[in-house]
Design goal:
heterodimer; A: about 290 residues; ABC transporter involved in vitamin B12 uptake, BtuC; B: about 350 residues; two-stranded antiparallel ribbon; 14 helices
Chain lengths: ~290, ~350
Amino acid sequence: MEELILSVVQRTLVAGTPLLLGTIGEIISERSGILNLGVEGVMAVGAVTAFIVTHHTGNPWLGLCAAIVAGMLISIVHAFASVSLQSNQVVSGLALTMLGLGVAGLLGKPYVGKPLAIKINAMPIPFLSDIPVVGPVLFNQSPFFYMAVLLAIGAWFVLEHTLLGIRIRSTGENPKATETQGVNVSLVRYLSVIAGGGFSAMAGAHLSISYSKSWIEGMTAGRGWIVIALTIFALWNPLRAMVGAFLFGGIFVLQYMLQPLGISPNFLAMPSPQRPGHAGGTLPPRRALRARL
Amino acid sequence: MLHFKVSDREQISAIGTFLTLVLALTAGMVVIGLIFLLCGVNPFFAFKKIFSGSFGSVFGFKETITKAIPLILIGGGLALAFKAKFWNIGAESQLLMGAIFGTWVGLHWGPVLPSPVIVPLMFVAGFIGGALWGLIPAILKIRFAINEVISTLMLNYICAEFLILLIVGPWKSKKKFGFPYTDDLPDSAILSLLPGSRIHTATLILAVVAVVVLAIVIYKTRFGYEVRVIGENPDAAKYAGIDFTRTTLLIMAISGGMAGLAGIGEVAGIHHYLSYPDSISSGYGFTAIIVAWLAKLNPLYVIFSGIFFSGILVGGDAIQISLGLPAATVDVFNGTLLFFLIMGDFFTKNKIRVLSGERA
């Protein structure tokens, strides 16, 4: 029984990792006042880029870097449309999702069904992983898990406690006032959207070179949309995003655990983000977002 | 030094709008060609295959019309919702809910009622199903100020999983060798097809009539005027005494209901039973967003933009077979074209002058 619980918790953290990475990115972007509905597409681009580069170079870390760069590049399109051209963010984000999924499908076609020879494996942290119970669960994880948690704390610190963070937040809350303070609002928004794209791509890379070691079309499986709901659930706070991401990671694992007991996975599958997402949504929405939509 | 001066256009001319549209589509096509080239596909060959597959042959054109039916219905409804700046991204699930409601009526009363009674009943049920599902995000927005983008998006998943639950559980047919399908609709509940095609004429006529009526409603009635005011300036709408609650509810009932009509049309005309969500709708709810956008949110133009994007869907199937490209190719098309369309809007709305000299 103890082993079962440990394995569930361990898998929960693995399943929550891409959700957390994506959510951090979306929080940064939305804090600057730009809603990015393109997460799903950018994730797919990240996954396919990471896979292709790893496949050819044999170095998954290089694959990860390439994925982040690719995610940032494709996000520029959304930044250009919604910041420079003041286009509708909802439509532009949807276009980014379609474009990302499409490009990923085209690029990845020759690689479907070819497993990688190497992937980013679990990396036990010396000494810490020897602690009973906590050790194997928390400190014997894929490096993506450590990075996600550290980046969440880092993003929270930057947003709440640095000048850059204040600039990002005030750009989102009141762009006119921020502009008068001499901050380049457009630049801040561009950088936030591009950074957000990097995070989403990283989440995608986790799926193709760590979680599994293969690429198939549609492997992001709606995670990008869950991320958008989680951003609200987390009330735009990266620390709270950790709670949300791992909670939904847990639901992800549970739907397979409960299936043999006769509970249809459809009950837990995608609807789950709905309820908490809504509960979060009932709180006063961020002014910036409301003004934008 | 060169710099740009952007100012609002005082008048938006029809010719200017049309030229920008054509230019945006052309630029989009060029970029799509470049993407194809980067992915190792000869763009000219791919374009030729796509358009000859959808518009170049009699069979292809019939398929194009078949797939345009749901796109026109949904696109018209979305144009109405988007006019009021209600971002309904959930047409996909409103379609499924319409299919579920309509199929239920067909399966229960189909065997006892004659065709002229049951078919309209099914369409009414489909409309009600889609409308009810569309009302949920409207109520959530009015009552709790919940962002409709998120709620409609998430309702898509709920409805898809609900449908799967139905077809693997209580509604599963005993005659389908264990496949997760419902029973076939009885013969009286099945729409007649245009001979030699899969065009279900009843839905096609319904779709065209619906968008024409909708265009009249939007541009010629008080309700349509209120919709446009809410979209252009919600504050002004409030001061003018426009009932936001009532109008929003009506908009979403119509928008969802039209998607529901498309859903039952697909089931009664083509599939004849409920199966997995992605086989009932091949992403019509999302493609219709672009259809509405290309039509400049005018339900009348939705007929043309619906046929255009349906052609891309059909052509996409054709190049999957002939060039071995993945299904996602259509997404590249849709995504890129949508980007260029919204970028084109910028140039219709704003006047851009290139000035030389120091910035003022």
